[in-house]
Design goal:
2 domains; mainly alpha; 0% strand
Length: 286
């Protein structure tokens, strides 16, 4: 049909435009019920523009117009997804703050486990909810073992996703703003101290998990080592949070005190282990 596109390619491109535009309109009209009517009208107008450009392309066979249409459709869809994510994350945070995460799970009892698993997955990616809030609340609803199992699996899946996003998607972005020399120095530091650094960061809530995952992905930490450290660290914290009530009763401590002491012990253990390994390595080299 054109010198640039075959009939099959053109059909697929048009289907892509129609799909993206349709999904965006569904998001605006069905999934964002409280959005202002003016934005819905703007969405309809933009959809009309996309369709018009596509028709112009079909008539004039102008590839440049088709590229513009594709960009508009992609940006239109991306913006709607960002608004969608912000809307529902904010709504979830408001519900959690208003009713408590435990009550949120009890209200949606039939889908509670799926909600909990999805939230645990989103925590290391986009959701700024403390792990202690979600796991402890789930423990009260499902019991410690189920809360531990689902929380561990969901969080670990989110951590892996964020790691690969930073590893393969973030490197190009960061290279535009950070000198290669500085990035190499950062990688060298992380590689020398990665076990101690990552374990302490995952266990002691100094930085959000998403920052740790981005740092590890950009720092060139090997995936197998990262996965092992993340799995052991999150298994430790999820166990502490899930069984916090039982452990607090045994040791006559509050949940906060229990977590503080556990973090101190874990951090001390990792430091001692690292120092021992370093000492052994120095003796072998000497």
């Amino acid at each position: 049909m054109t010198d640039t596109f075959s009939r099959k390619q053109l059909t697929l491109e048009l289907l892509l435009h129609i799909t993206l535009t349709s999904l965006t309109l569904v998001t605006l009209f069905k999934l964002l019920p409280t959005i202002q009517p003016v934005f819905k009208l703007f969405g309809i107008g933009l959809a009309v523009v996309i369709v018009t450009f596509d028709l112009v392309f079909l008539c004039k066979r102008n590839l440049q117009i088709f590229k513009i249409t594709r960009l508009i459709a992609l940006y239109f869809f991306a913006i709607s997804m960002i608004v969608f994510a912000i809307f529902y994350v904010t709504k979830l945070l408001v519900l959690t703050d208003m009713y408590g995460f435990e009550n949120l799970l009890r209200i949606h009892e039939s889908a509670a486990k799926s909600i909990y698993l999805a939230i645990c997955f989103a925590q290391p990616i986009i959701l700024p909810l403390p792990e202690v809030v979600t796991v402890a609340a789930a423990s009260a609803v499902f019991g410690p073992f189920t809360a531990l199992s689902l929380g561990f699996l969901g969080t670990l899946a989110g951590i892996i996703t964020m790691y690969f996003f930073a590893r393969f998607g973030g490197q190009h972005i960061v290279s535009r703003f950070v000198k290669e020399e500085h990035l190499s120095k950062y990688k060298s530091y992380v590689q020398r101290n990665e076990v101690l650094f990552l374990a302490i960061m995952f266990i002691i809530p100094v930085l959000p998990d998403e920052i740790i995952c981005i740092g590890a992905g950009l720092g060139g930490v090997a995936f197998r080592r990262f996965l092992l450290i993340a799995a052991l660290s999150k298994l430790f914290t999820a166990t502490i949070f899930a069984y916090s009530v039982e452990l607090a009763k045994i040791f006559s401590l509050t949940t906060t005190e229990l977590m503080v002491y556990a973090s101190i012990i874990a951090g001390f253990a990792f430091i001692v282990t690292t120092l021992i390994k370093k000492n052994v390595r120095q003796k072998e080299e000497g």
